[in-house]
Amino acid sequence: MALFGDLNIVNTTDKRKLKNVIETAAHLGYSTVAINHVVNLQEKKQEIGKPTCVAELFTSPPTVQGKSKPIKIITRLTVVVSEASHCNELRTTSPRTRLYDLVAVHPKTEKLFHTACMTLDVDIIEIIMTEKQQFHFKRPPVNVAIDRGIVFELVYSPAIKDSTMRRYTISNSLSLMNIGKGKNIIISSGAEKPLELRGPYDIANLGLLFGLSEGDAKAAISTNCRKALLHGETRKTAQGVVHTMKKTEVPEDKEEAPASKRARTDDP
Amino acid sequence: MYSNLEKTPRHLLVCEKSNFKNEKSRHGIHVENHYFNYRVSVLIPECGALPAGLSTIGSSFGKYYLVKNLPVYEIVEQQFLDLCVKKGSFYALSYNTRIDQDNSAALIPAGKLILSVDKDTYEELGLEGQQSQYSHKAVMRHIITIDLTDASFAPGTKKYKRVIWALKEKKPLACDFLMAWHPSGEGDFSLSSYFAKYQCKEHTPSVSTKILRDIPSPVISGGELKGKPEESCDSQEFLDWLGAASADIDCNNEASSFLSTYCCPEPSVVMGQACLWTVTGFLLPEKIYMLLEQLRHYFDEPKLAHWTTLTVHGFADSPVSWGVAEHGFHKGGENLYNFVIFRNHDYWLQMAVGTQDGCPP
């Protein structure tokens, strides 16, 4: 199996709180966490800003419990879409989404869910947990999304906060499981406070309640997270084979250019 | 939908009984083949003070070393093999690595190096290995076994050069190692001086003694492994009770206890006192065998107790359990064995493993 990851830790402006949450995640045994910047385009004057700088957050990231390596922190963007015009930001050529390691979409209607599975350039599709799913999942778009390498995300912190949300979480997850057969599912916390995090083996057990098998549940927090991370990395490359790196400018180049000009003018 | 909720992850328990004086008894082989031992505990009923023989063995358990950030090629190099591995039993296990998440390494005294690596490392390393038996849908783990004592692994051969190149230049693997050495003859090799350039720290196993008072204990008889109703208890029930007693859980079935409603299996008798002695560290099978022999002779003098137990726990994150059988960690990584020793040199041997483990031998 791969390293455990929690790909949804909600970003807050309070840096100390965020640091506490990440330290708790490292203590629980997660090797990778993603700081999630949520943007709801329905509200006015909401723009996709720049991600928080990870290096500013920790001078030396906390070590994962039971291992000798520090925790890996990456950035993630979630766009909550409720109209078709909001999807413009999620095209491949959008400049702002390039700054984030992972891009996720949270579709609110059936048509947008269909668009997200088929065409949008995202890594994660978040499933609504806080209200009853208005539409049923259909097999064709879910299968297309699985083929494209997109993962579906189930968030469990609403279930910790409220018992009504717990019912919605389980019913929405079960309906997804019926269609998708447990493939490409990740379970993440969506935690705003350290108390809303749970350990990886506990989440693997929670996956059993959602209808996953033993192996699938453990994969939901390890292998499939790795899949999403690699999908995010390949978004910046050409088909996942070639990637470009910015080369530092070499000062000698400037001297050569005038020399060649001189050579041309020397010819009578 | 919920049919898989009714099943718990599988675990195996093998119980066998025999007599120490029986020539075909395989107790020695079982102890010898369980290479990496973390904790040994002995429970002696009706005993108020630790017997002298046990405390001498406890102090002679031998040192082990923790070397930080040691590159794996260092224990594969010919110089080290000649000085150490071929002249005794050398045990090494990677420390602070999780078997279901990171790369782990182990060196067993048969001279085999076992590397349990994840997908990316396997593809970058370039050494031949097998897929893990406990892969789910996608293969995420591979096991590479290198026989260091093989004739084809002499220095200068293609195989040796490839392994050293892979571990030194292609993908340098380094981790913290716990190691211990049991010399087979006269040897003045010191691990701490050989690995002086890495942070090498010496440790001794920690010993603790506890006296338990007024605890109910099940009645068992050496000849009846399955127990007789009204007369003696089943070996599985006995192992459950032993776990509860060692962990200091009340077996009274009190309604007010939130922790446990476990109660001692019937028929039972109340023990006035019992001695629970525990050693924790990186323990060698050779010393455990000596301890087992000492316990056999506990009944040479008449004692109140009818039985004693010796329980050995293995490391949860080791790549192997018994011999070269692969060991994995699903929700738990237990691999332990328990001897119940009776007055007439009869014994019960119970071996238990968790989900991702082969059946014990």
Automatic annotation (TrEMBL), chain A:
Protein name: Ribonuclease P protein subunit p30
Provenance organism: Acipenser oxyrinchus oxyrinchus
One term of GO molecular function: RNA binding
Region listing for Disordered, in residue ranges: 238-268
Keyword tRNA processing among UniProt keywords: yes
Function description: Component of ribonuclease P, a ribonucleoprotein complex that generates mature tRNA molecules by cleaving their 5'-ends. Also a component of the MRP ribonuclease complex, which cleaves pre-rRNA sequences.
Organism placement in taxonomy: Eukaryota, Metazoa, Chordata, Craniata, Vertebrata
Biological process, per Gene Ontology: rRNA processing; tRNA processing
Record field: compositional bias (Basic and acidic residues): 246-268
Subcellular localization, as worded in the UniProt entry: Nucleus, Nucleolus
UniProtKB/TrEMBL annotation, chain B:
One of the record's GO cellular component terms: ribonuclease MRP complex
Residues passing through the membrane, by range: none
InterPro entries: RNase_P_Rpp40 (IPR013893)
Any one GO BP annotation for this protein: endonucleolytic cleavage in ITS1 to separate SSU-rRNA from 5.8S rRNA and LSU-rRNA from tricistronic rRNA transcript (SSU-rRNA, 5.8S rRNA, LSU-rRNA)
GO molecular function, one term: ribonuclease MRP activity
Annotated coiled-coil segments of the chain: none
PANTHER family: RIBONUCLEASE P PROTEIN SUBUNIT P40
Record's protein name: Ribonuclease P protein subunit p40
Species, as recorded: Acipenser oxyrinchus oxyrinchus
Lineage: Eukaryota, Metazoa, Chordata, Craniata, Vertebrata
